[in-house]
Design a protein that fits this description.
Helix content is 34%, strand content 19%. Helix 2 packs antiparallel against helix 3 and helix 4 crosses helix 10. It has three domains: 46 residues, no CATH class; 159 residues, D-amino Acid Aminotransferase, Chain A, domain 1; 79 residues, no CATH class. The strands form two sheets. The chain has a five-stranded antiparallel sheet with strand order 7-6-5-8-9. Strands 1-4-2-3 form a four-stranded antiparallel sheet, with helices on one face. A hairpin with a 2-residue loop joins strand 8 and strand 9. By secondary structure, it is an alpha+beta fold. The chain has ten helices and nine strands.
């Protein structure tokens, strides 16, 4: 009977229905229990924090023990703009149209034909509008209302999210002619030093994760779940991105600094301290071991 259920997909569907509820319950009881649950679900292995050796283990150790207030300020998609301006300058910030405290404050008619709406206190709470004439405003309002009433610290055990004021920012759309999303360059920085990057392309259809070193060579860190693009042009502004990432990551054991290349101009994306809630599925086990050696916890 169990084999029949598995073949029919009933078990899988039941799990994905229950999983968000399990995470909310565990997140309300103990973030440490939630971390262990998520680690087992994503990697099919036990979480080891005594001592942590893999990158993902060290990342979760940081989530449980590193309480620098900079995590709250720089995870907030509005407040981080002030941090970037202080460290690097406002010239790499995307153009900001509006900041809203409530969904009801958004005047959609006054917005340009292209724009991006982002909730400041969560992950993946973005509405990309490349053509307002085909934009579903009612669906956007429904999504934004749900997101504004969600505490993201409970779903992945990222406690710093609970301290961020929920707001919505509206920024300039910086997609390309071919895609609704510009190519995303994510620089992984350890103790103030960029070590490598992930290049994300084709986000709206077939998201790719390509690992490269700072000389643009392919790194074999990717899991089998996401495709890579081996033949990519190196952006002319990569050295500039590396320099900015170095300035923005000083004094921080680990942070991912994201940029876009907008017609040759570097545009800041975000700072991420806990990618994928500490359990990124796009890192292979071998990559996890190699990257783990870059993250030093001794001083902490």
């Amino acid at each position: 009977m169990l084999q029949k259920l598995k073949k029919s997909g009933v078990i899988s569907k039941l799990f994905w229905y229950l999983d968000p509820k399990i995470r909310r319950v565990l997140g309300s009881v103990s973030s440490k229990l939630l971390h262990r649950y998520l680690y087992r679900v994503v990697y099919r292995r036990k979480l080891n924090l005594n001592p942590p050796e893999l990158f993902t283990e060290k990342l979760i150790w940081l989530m449980q023990n590193y309480n620098n207030p900079i995590l709250v300020r720089c995870t907030d998609k509005y407040e981080v703009r002030g941090f970037v301006e202080e460290k690097v300058g406002s010239h790499i910030l995307n153009e900001l149209y509006h900041v809203y405290d409530r969904v009801e404050d958004i005047d959609f008619e006054a917005l340009p034909d292209q724009f991006v709406l982002k909730c400041t206190h969560g992950c993946g709470c973005n509405i990309i509008v490349s053509d307002k004439s085909s934009f579903d405003q009612n669906q956007a309002i429904e999504s934004l209302t749900k997101w504004m009433n969600t505490d993201y610290s409970k779903s992945m055990g990222e406690s710093h999210y609970s301290k961020i004021k929920p707001r919505i920012i509206c920024e300039r759309f910086i997609g390309s002619d071919e895609h609704d999303f510009a190519t995303d360059y994510k620089l992984w920085c350890f103790n103030g030093e960029p070590k490598f990057l992930i290049v994300n392309t084709d986000r709206e259809k077939n998201l790719t994760f390509t690992y490269r070193d700072l000389d643009w060579n392919i790194l074999d860190f990717a899991s089998d779940y996401y495709p890579q693009v081996l033949n990519q042009d190196k952006p002319s502004c990569l050295d500039e991105m590396v320099s900015y990432a170095r300035s923005l990551s000083q004094g921080i054991p680990y942070v991912r600094v994201d940029f876009y290349d907008f017609n040759g101009r570097v545009v800041f994306g975000e700072l991420t301290f806990t990618p994928a809630g500490g359990v990124p599925p796009y890192v292979s086990y071998e990559g996890d071991k190699v990257i783990g050696k870059l993250l030093e916890l001794n001083e902490l």
